[in-house]
């Protein structure tokens, strides 16, 4: 049972000596202990660098050693004598006019502002923080005037009345005023009071809700260590391909899918163990939230390891894919609360670490694209494990297109694969949306609409080209349309229709069918002519649909 799994474990064991295994165990225990201590008690490099006191308040901050005093006067005396760095009483924060005390005052100000923001969020929730703002610009006609109008004496008097009168200084007192202004006070003698203006209501300077970015370092602990296991897995598969062990296994009763799953299982379990450790430390269900990412990353690395032409190409492609997947996971989670942030499972990991409530259904929907992409890549990797494909010197991109085209053996499979490729299209279109945010509005929409047409028509044309019939056109257009509408109707992806109009039902199907039919007709002479025509039709529809909304 599972002969490849046992062989993989034995091979890994032979590569490590007993001493090296003991070293790895000790190193792992030490890393876990340091991580637990650091994230349980915080990094204490700035712990207690200031001393604060108050006659009313109790401050709990890592930066301050705080104690209370009996009276206001005793606190001021301690501040003057340099025994404390900052003193708090009622609405005032007192500091000396030396560098350390001033720095302590600024740190105390930030601490109080943060505490006030937390209090606002705890008591009023999202209603206290208007983070979504849209500016509406009204058209107005401004007639140019080329001749200046004379200003009347009455208007000049009105302007002068609005200017606050300045205190007049007598000439004989001018020297005394200047001397007092430039006189230097001895350090430590002057006490400066920092007092907020008394008002019944006011807007805090840092008016923003608590961010999940502070939890991002913890989230990386669930992801980054598992890359070590993924690298071992891809290297092991690549070694089997280079040494032609795969060709021997393909001639045995063990199928390509069994080979991949048994080869992947020990490394996948190792990744889960790496994710389980921080889950136990932080008392979180983090292992659940990173599971979809593991499925996608392992399957992508399997496809790259089988279809790469050299170790250099393997290393480069794995780095690129890992980077793209990390960007897809991390960037939306940084902008939590904004449209499209819930497409990433890491967003829900951060919310879990912050003890925020969310709908489990939204997490499931955000995980579905990653799972389906992973399963599709496993299937395509299995289909690509033929002697002809392994010995081919075609690029991995061409091999992907060829195996996707070859895998659509009938219309039913073409329908299923068309539905699965929607998730790949959505993944790539996310980066188009991210790019469009950095360019002007009109060019960004044009580039976005063109990019969407290029990506979607590529997947559809690859599935239609082997069999250019009306039934294949219906199957591919129907599968693509069904999966696309299912995504856009989900709550997590509802904001995606802002740039790819999802409010229409019949028109998108007609678009997919028309573009696919045009490709099927024109690609008989040249594949590129049919593809260009399909992209042009798709781009025209997208641009007009967005312009009308």
Structure keywords:
mainly alpha, 64% helix, 21 helices, 549 residues
Helices, strands, pairings?
Blueprint: H1 3-14, H2 18-41, E1 50-54, E2 64-68, H3 72-80, E3 86-89, E4 92-96, H4 99-124, H5 153-162, H6 174-182, E5 191-195, H7 216-223, H8 226-242, H9 245-250, H10 256-281, H11 286-307, H12 311-334, H13 345-353, H14 360-384, H15 387-390, H16 396-407, H17 411-436, H18 441-464, H19 470-489, H20 506-522, H21 527-548
Parallel strand pairs: 1-2, 1-3
Antiparallel strand pairs: 3-4, 4-5
Helix pairs in contact: 1-10, 7-10, 8-10, 8-11, 10-11, 11-12, 11-13, 11-14, 12-13, 14-16, 14-17, 16-18, 17-18, 17-19, 18-20, 18-21, 19-20, 20-21
Quick rundown:
With 549 residues, the chain is mainly α. The chain is built from 21 helices and 5 strands. Helix 10 runs antiparallel to helix 11 (286-307), helix 11 runs parallel beside helix 14 (360-384) and helix 14 crosses helix 16 (396-407).
Structural account:
This protein is mainly alpha-helical. The protein has a domain of 76 residues. Helix content is 64%, strand content 4%. It has 21 helices and five strands. The longest helix has 26 residues. About 7% of the residues have low confidence.
H-E order: HHEEHEEHHHEHHHHHHHHHHHHHHH
Report the helical percentage: 55-70%
User: What ranges have pLDDT less than 50 throughout 5 or more consecutive residues?
Assistant: 132-137, 144-148, 165-169, 181-185, 192-203, 498-503
Principal-axes geometry comes out as flat
Protein structure class = mainly alpha
What is the CA-CA span between the terminal residues?
A: 59 Å
| Total number of strands | 5
How many DSSP H or I helices? 21
* Rg calc: 33 Å
Strand content: under 5%
Strand arrangement in the largest pleated sheet: 2-1-3-4-5
This entry's quaternary arrangement is single chain
Mean pLDDT: 77
What characterizes the major β-sheet? 5 strands, mixed
């Amino acid at each position: 049972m599972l002969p490849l799994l046992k062989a993989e474990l034995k091979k890994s064991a032979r590569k490590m000596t007993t001493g090296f295994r003991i070293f790895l165990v000790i190193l792992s225990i030490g890393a876990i202990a340091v991580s637990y201590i650091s994230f349980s008690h915080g990094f204490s490099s700035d712990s207690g660098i200031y001393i604060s006191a108050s006659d009313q308040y109790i401050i709990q901050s890592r930066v301050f050693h705080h104690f209370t005093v009996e009276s206001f006067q005793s606190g001021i005396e301690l501040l003057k004598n340099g025994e404390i760095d900052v003193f708090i009483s009622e609405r005032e924060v007192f500091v000396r006019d030396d560098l350390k005390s001033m720095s302590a005052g600024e740190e105390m100000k930030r601490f109080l502002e943060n505490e006030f923001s937390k209090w606002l969020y705890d008591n009023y929730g999202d209603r206290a923080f208007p983070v979504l703002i849209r500016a509406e610009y009204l058209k107005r006609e401004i007639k140019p005037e080329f001749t200046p109008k004379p200003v009347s004496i009455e208007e000049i008097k009105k302007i002068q009345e609005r200017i606050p009168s300045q205190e007049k200084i007598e000439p004989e007192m001018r020297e005394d005023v200047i001397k007092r202004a430039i006189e230097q006070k001895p350090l430590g003698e002057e006490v400066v009071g920092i007092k907020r203006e008394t008002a019944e209501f006011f807007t805090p300077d840092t008016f923003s809700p608590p961010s999940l970015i502070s939890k991002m370092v913890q989230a990386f602990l669930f992801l980054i260590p598992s890359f070590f296991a993924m690298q071992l897995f891809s290297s092991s598969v690549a070694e089997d391909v280079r040494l032609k062990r795969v060709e021997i296994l393909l001639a045995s009763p063990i199928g390509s899918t069994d080979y991949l799953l048994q080869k992947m299982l020990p490394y996948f379990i190792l990744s889960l163990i790496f994710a389980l450790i921080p889950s136990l430390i932080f008392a979180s269900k983090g292992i659940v939230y990173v599971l979809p990412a593991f499925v996608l990353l392992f399957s992508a690395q399997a496809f790259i390891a089988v279809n790469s032409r050299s170790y250099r190409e393997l290393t480069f492609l794995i780095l690129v894919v890992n980077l793209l997947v990390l960007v897809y996971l991390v960037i939306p989670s940084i902008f939590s609360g904004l449209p499209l942030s819930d497409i990433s499972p890491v967003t829900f990991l951060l919310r879990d670490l912050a003890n925020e409530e969310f709908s489990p259904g939204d997490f499931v929907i955000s995980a579905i694209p990653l799972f389906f992409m992973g399963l599709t890549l496993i299937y395509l990797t299995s289909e690509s494990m033929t002697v002809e494909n392994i010995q081919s010197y075609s690029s991995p991109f061409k091999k992907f297109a060829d195996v996707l085209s070859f895998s659509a053996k009938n219309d039913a499979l073409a329908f299923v694969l068309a539905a699965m490729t929607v998730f790949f299209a959505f993944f790539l279109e996310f980066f188009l949306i991210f790019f469009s945010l950095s360019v002007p509005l009109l060019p960004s929409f044009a580039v976005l609409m063109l990019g969407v047409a290029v990506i979607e028509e590529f997947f559809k044309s690859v599935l239609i080209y082997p069999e250019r019939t009306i039934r294949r056109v219906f199957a591919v257009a129907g599968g693509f349309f069904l999966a696309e509408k299912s995504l856009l109707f989900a709550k997590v992806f509802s904001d995606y229709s802002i740039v790819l109009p999802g409010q229409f039902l019949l028109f998108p199907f007609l678009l997919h069918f028309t573009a696919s039919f045009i490709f099927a007709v024109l690609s008989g002479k040249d594949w590129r002519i049919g593809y260009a025509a399909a992209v042009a039709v798709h781009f025209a529809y997208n641009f007009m649909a967005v312009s009308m909304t």
